[in-house]
Write a structure and sequence with these properties.
Elements (H helix, E strand, L loop, with lengths): L1 H15 L3 H12 L2 H18 L9 H17 L36 H4 L18 H7 L4 H12 L4 H8 L3 H18 L11 H17 L2 H6 L1 E9 L2 E6 L1 H11 L7 E5 L7 E7 L5 E11 L6 E7 L3 H5 L13
Helix pairs in contact: 2-3, 2-4, 3-4, 7-9, 8-9
Length: about 325
């Protein structure tokens, strides 16, 4: 019997493992937390394994796994608050040189490392994990939707399920699904980026922009930093609830609030949410560089300016992305 069970388990893992990344992406979109999403994917696989003997193949294994994951997410959301960014809580701050508060009790939206959710080139469901569907602004906008509307929109517009399939999962009517989808789309139009604003910029222009960004932060050249921003750039930094708009405000913020001297920072590329991102390390008393913050950048169309910086101070995100706990020795980058 043990041999049979082992063979069944190996068969289950072989067939289900190719969907792990897209399931993580789906749970992340639903929950807004990479840590919660990882927990829910583990729960999904545990539930699926326990029920595998009863899987009759009336739907594909992929659809069955997403059904389990969606139901698990909806159950989890019954007892959890939505995860905002600071821009979702109120207007911009007016004193970037003043004392900044922290609200660690707020369940802030978290970024997700690309390495955890981007499909391999051979993945037949690559569209599910497309970069646009996990972009920070899109996931932030999703958090404003009620959980069931969120599920409807993701199942219909991201996973491309039929309305009847969604209705069966949610135990409701097709008309109710279509109505919920219409309301969800209307809400997202107010907060989510348009297709034009998330278009991929010219590669060479973006590479030059990002090189300048890294160099400016390493040298703490504030004038150069703000030259890289759009006129309406937004800088936000959970768990700090204050956020700031415009190059002048950001210049003051970086000058006054960034506690490192020129040459004491190193930046490592660390793509998150399908966007350019950098892990920022600062030099400590021991001479080594230690995690400081994670910058997730939104590049404006054309690739020549940055329109948004999400600066995340949750250092557990470094381990989640597989980033080093310390950078030993010198060096500028």
């Amino acid at each position: 019997m043990a041999t049979v069970n082992t063979a069944a388990e190996e068969d289950f893992l072989r067939l289900s493992d190719p969907y792990r990344r897209e399931l993580l992406a789906h749970c992340y979109r639903m929950l807004g937390s990479v840590h919660d999403a990882e927990d829910l994917v583990q729960e999904t696989y545990l539930r699926a394994w326990r029920s595998y003997d009863n899987f009759e193949g009336r739907s594909s294994l992929r659809t069955w796994l997403h059904t389990i994951a969606t139901r698990a997410c909806l159950t989890a959301l019954e007892r959890r608050q939505r995860r905002p960014l600071p821009t979702g809580l109120g207007g911009p701050g007016d004193d970037p040189a003043g004392e900044l508060t922290q609200r660690p009790e707020v369940p802030w939206l978290e970024p997700v490392p690309d390495v955890l959710v981007e499909p391999s080139a051979a993945d037949p469901a690559a569209v599910v994990g497309s970069r646009e569907s996990v972009r920070l602004a899109f996931v932030a906008a999703l958090q404003h939707l009620p959980p069931r509307q969120r599920a409807v929109l993701l199942l219909r517009d991201v996973l491309r399920w039929k309305a009847a399939e969604v209705a069966e999962l949610l135990d409701t009517s097709t008309a109710s699904v279509n109505s919920a989808l219409q309301r969800a789309r209307a809400q997202l139009e107010k907060a989510a980026p348009s297709e034009e604003s998330v278009a991929e910029p010219a590669g060479a222009a973006q590479r030059e922009l990002l090189d300048r960004y890294v160099e400016a932060f390493v040298t703490k050249d504030v004038r150069e930093i703000v030259r890289l921003f759009t006129e309406d750039v937004i800088w936000e930094m959970p768990p700090v609830p204050e956020w700031f708009r415009g190059p002048d405000q950001v210049a003051t913020l970086v000058s006054v609030q960034c506690p490192y001297a020129p040459g004491d920072a190193r930046l490592l590329p660390a793509g998150h949410n399908g966007q350019p991102a950098y892990a920022v390390y600062t030099r400590g008393p021991d001479g080594d560089h230690h995690p400081f913050a994670l910058h997730v950048l939104t590049v404006a169309p054309g690739g020549r300016a940055i329109s948004h910086v999400g600066c995340f101070f949750d250092l557990s995100l470094f381990a989640t992305a597989g980033l080093p706990a310390v950078l030993s020795g010198g060096g500028s980058r």
